[in-house]
Amino acid sequence: LADEIANTLTYTRSLDVRPSAITRKFVGNDIDPQRAGREVHVANIITGHFLKQGDRLLITLEAIQVDGNRLLWQTNVTAPAEDLIALQAQMAAQMRQGLLPALGAAGGFLDTGTRPKNAEAYDLYLHSLALPHDAGPNKDAIAVLEHVVEVDPTYAPAWEQLGLRCYYDADYSDGGEAMFQRSSKAYERAVELDPNRIVADGQLINNHVERGELGKAYQEAQVLVKRRPESAQAHFTMGYVYRYAGMLEQSTSECNPALALDPGN
């Protein structure tokens, strides 16, 4: 649920969303939203819980402003427990209609995200998000995601996750060059399906940098910054390219706006 909420919010131009790898540790009934917010350097926290009632799931979501501990928004969502696609669609709609206006970000939503089409594949995709990134479980995640994109080949977030997992296997395990190339292909497919998958776009550019393809990386990073000038991640990616080209002043000139846009990152 948390990953799907974050996934929806990444389509807003004016919000930077912390990845689940950072926020996943804040699980439990005794979490202090203010402490969690200060620890990860964010202005707002989204929290919630779910309850299964018969064959339905009831989900409660709240947005809390860290400074002042003020409740900004609250909603309830209910859907059949076996129909996670319907649940995802309801949550996304509630956030677009209620949460984003409460955060003052309604005008910057990019409604281009691809939607899951196969219930089994979507369930497996969600399962893969919970698998650790250590070498063994990461290989399990790759196997799961390979099946997901075979069954539902048009769901961009699954391709993005596959690219990330293959990169981990190449750099931190024994996947080698074959997995590195698989990572780039998966990122390319994610961006082809949804040009606003900024993580996939940025990671693909980083892959080009790591293989010495600086000209290609530079051109793609320029396009990314021009398309998403409000994104800290876009400016950081441009700075990453400049750094490996030895252009440290230009790299600094991109890192500064990245930090200004997202000072807690």
The total strand number stands at 3
Report the mean per-residue pLDDT as an integer: 92
* Biggest sheet record: 3 strands, antiparallel
Number of helices: 12
Short précis:
With 265 residues, this protein is mainly alpha-helical. The chain is 59% helix and 12% strand. The longest helix is centred in the middle third of the chain and has 20 residues, at 84-103.
Task: Provide a descriptive summary of the structure in words.
The longest helix has 20 residues, at 84-103. The model has no long low-confidence stretch (mean pLDDT 92). A three-stranded antiparallel β-sheet has the order 1-2-3. It has twelve helices and three strands, in the order H-H-H-E-E-E-H-H-H-H-H-H-H-H-H. It is 59% helix and 12% strand. The two termini are 23 Å apart. By secondary structure, it is mainly α. The protein is globular.
Task: Describe how the helices and strands are arranged.
Elements lengths: L1 H8 L10 H4 L9 H8 L3 E10 L2 E10 L4 E11 L3 H20 L15 H11 L5 H17 L4 H17 L3 H18 L4 H13 L3 H14 L4 H13 L3 H14 L4
Antiparallel strand pairs: 1-2, 2-3
Helix pairs in contact: 1-4, 5-6, 6-7, 7-8, 8-9, 9-10, 9-11, 10-11, 11-12
Task: Provide key terms for this protein.
single chain; 265 residues; mainly alpha; 3-stranded antiparallel β-sheet; 12 helices
